[in-house]
Amino acid sequence: MVSAQFPRFRSILDQFSPYKPGHTVSAPDGRSFKLSSNESPFAPLPSVVKVIAEAAGQVNRYPDNGSVELTEAIAARFGVPASHVAVGCGSVGLAQQLLEAVGEPGAEVLYAWRSFESYPTLSDLAGVTSVRVPLRGETHDLAAMADAITDRTRLIFVCNPNNPTGTVVHRAELEWFLGRVPEDCLVVLDEAYSEYVRDAGVPDGISLYRDRANTAVLRTFSKAYGLAGLRVGFMVAHEPVVDAVRKTKLPFTVNALGQVAAIASLEAEPELLERVEAVVKERVRVRGELLAQGWTVPPTEANFVWLRLGDGGLRPRGSERPAARHRRRARVDRRSRGQRHFAGGRQGVSPPALSPDSDRVP
Ligand SMILES: Cc1ncc(COP(=O)(O)O)c(C=O)c1O
Fold it and tell me: Which of 86-100, 122-136, 180-194, 322-336 has the lowest mean pLDDT?
């Protein structure tokens, strides 16, 4: 018989459930696509499948721990030094490494809420305190986020476009915000959906990190490049940030198939980006249809649209104002221990161009 006493684990583990991926839905006619993790609906290109199949014959060997060839390919593609690139097990793996790199007792991590579901869990696991700043108009409230910075803030996520809302922050307001962040605090621009952005006012994080030692950009091969199953993401940042990420890396964490597939996908980029264009067109169509039916759907620059559910939120416009009610609630929500909700004061200077998101789409 098993004894009644089980091993003791960190108490923080009692505060959240394991990550739950989105449901897989099968339509009777077999025409459904699983998109609930915002992945690509398209199968990988035949040229990419071919290199994966070739590499499969050598998986008795460990992968290249430094992902050297892939690092160089990314560096060449984005016009940055290879020493500014770190490859990880998905961009979520890199986010975890970054949090571990800053996570000491008392450290705070700041992010908008809602935003990417993994930020709270990874922050808890790294032993840092999450400070969540409610979205304003479904997008980052950068003025409130700037006000929430303390001398304990070690890392700030700005998810652009934001998951799950698809909304964006524009160059002027982001530059204003970056100017408000102390130099010893890392800003992580999480750009998992950057290939889907068509709003010309949204900055490419890689243009912002160059003269900012405390700014890192996360990108992924999971969405536009269609390699979610192989788990490859990358970070572009200055060398001290890359070094910190290398130190917190689990050995061999980027697998051999992922490395060759990512290189092949970069080579096939024009073809892959045609598929992205098809998704962008569909996003415009879907949002247009939903708006026409009276739903509230924020402008999206990602590969998904955001419908607020629950608490009366799923209702066509006019019958109620669920989003406003929901927002009010978020401002007083203090659910998890170890997490501080910032109420979003707007005292102090405001960023320029805090206008509603551009709705410009091709
Ligand atoms: C904003 C954001 N960042 C990071 C990720 C993680 O992507 P991956 O770990 O597959 O690179 C996702 C996935 O949904 C995301 O939405």
Answer: 322-336
How is residue 237 written in tokens? 């940042």
Convert the pLDDT of each residue in 248-283 to its tens digit: 999 999 999 999 999 999 999 999 999 999 999 999
Q: Of all atoms in ligand 1, which is nearest to the CA of residue 162?
A: 1
Q: Are residues 163 and 115 in contact, defined by beta-carbon separation less than 8 angstroms?
A: yes
Cis-peptide, bond into residue 114, ω within 30° of zero: yes
pTM here is: 0.87
pLDDT digits (tens, 9 = 90+) for 17-38: 888 777 777 777 777 666 778 9
Ligand 1: which residues within 6 Å by Cβ?
37-38, 90-92, 116, 159, 163, 190, 192, 220, 222, 228, 233
In terms of phi and psi (left: phi > 0; alpha: psi -120 to 50; beta: otherwise), the region of 286 is: alpha
Question: Cα–chain-centroid distance for residue 10?
Answer: 26
Mean pLDDT value across the chain: 86
Output the CA 306–ligand 1 centroid distance in Å. 16
- DSSP per-residue codes, 273-339: HHHHHHHHHHHHHHHHHHHHTT-------SSS-----STT-SS-TTS--HHHHHHHHHHT---STTE
How many angstroms does the Cα of residue 89 sit away from the middle of ligand 1? 11
Question: Which of 39, 197, 223 gets mutated to test ligand 1 (max ligand atoms within 8 A of its CB)?
Answer: 223
